[in-house]
Structures
1.
Amino acid sequence: MPTDSAADRQTCAFCQQTCPLEPLSIEEGGTTLAFCSQTCRNAHEDNGGAVTGSEGHRKVRPGVAGLDACLPQGLPRNSFVLLLGNSGTREEAIEAELVWRALERGEPAVIVAFTEPPTSVVENFLAMDWNVLPYLERDQLHIVDCFTYRMDDRERLYDRMTAWNTHLRRATEPQTTAVRDPSDSYEVQNALDNCLEALEMVETGLVVVDSIAEFGSLVQPVQAYDFVKNVRAEVCKGRFVPIIAGATVAGEADSFPRNLDYVADGVVDLALDGSVIEDTLFRRLRVRKLRGVLTVSEWHTYEYTSGLGMVTFDPLEEVKANASDGGKGEQKSDEGNGTKNGIETGESKDVKGATVPGETASSEPENEPKQG
């Protein structure tokens, strides 16, 4: 029989979920324990207690300001998420920050790189003041190299490298798995699976694919769709490891990867908005959908600052601040976002209305929250 109200429902002593029906009870040590099902009751007896970390394996806080604001309940670990953006939206910086936050949490990460060699991947982190070299050395970060197959004479490339790039190559080489033919989707899948096995990635860590659009250009459409479906099944659903697949999109709405919406668990839209201030483009982000959690699908304006990562702010507040300063605040607000006259400086200063990782935006959502 169902209980009278949600307030009357008990919590299962094993899975920690609410009991929607009349619970099964046992006496243990003078205490009455309730279970939502016979399966949980048996599991309690087999394990000698409640399951530990029942929420930890299911959801994780991304640690990226704009995503945290859109996902108050976190990111389900069994999600395949598309990061779709126009050119100039800093999609690669968002991917890098997601990896960096995972490493900071003590979790492993794998980057499947189609658009850059491993040395450039690491250099991008270092340019943001995120030193991943110790994590490479600790075998916490791995790179699946789907780029350098394009280079016919790699030794010649190595001979031309500066001392610094040679150092980066030596640092990344032990943690890099080279794919000889990225147009063979099974070879890419096997390389990824081997990395996940080596890092023992089950219910922990993160995989970033940069970019799924580039992979789609190497294979036939049916192969691209099958690859996405297979890695979603094997990695996200089989291992509870989320995949973030980035793509700079262009062309028709029904072309790959735009038409992967029905396959992906989540879609994050990135856009450039020139409607706020004339001759000025603002980068904006929203979570269009994400299965299994509450989503606040409002747009957040953002910029990237070295060390801090994504900083969100209200462009209208910036306009008001500039107007109150008699136009003198324009350069000031740019500098606060790590830019000056539209050029990124890497410097970090306070921005009026800004939100950085770990803080909560003060503005009210434009749309009502909805279930992903």
2.
Amino acid sequence: MATPTNTSTSYPSRLSAPGVIVTVFVLAMSACVLGLVLWKAVDARRSALLQSEVDIRNLAHSLQEHASHTFQAADVAMSGMVDLLKYQNPRADRFNQFLANTAKSLPQIREFGVLDATGEWRYSSLPDNPATTTMIVPTSPITANTMTRRCA
């Protein structure tokens, strides 16, 4: 005689197979979505870093150009003054006015001053020639630059 099989034991395993498949599918899709989100986040970060690098390079180039133009403007103004003083001895009131006008036309320059061989103010773009003390600062073993400080 055949023994009756209990169908109730095989029945739950049939129901669990579709549940396992759905669970695996949901987990796989969630992993794909999470991977896509992470990939996009990493790509956006890389893109932002590249754009920041370009912006910093542009800013550095702009700053370098500005500094170069600042020094060129002062160099052009001072070379004209040097040529004038090399061949002429201008009147103080006229040359002081020229220095003041030149300083006003160049916003990056606050003042111009010309010192004589003893370190005394000869010409100045300031309304009055300031009193100075002279300080020798060697720039190389052969030459020395004379720098001035205003005294109060």
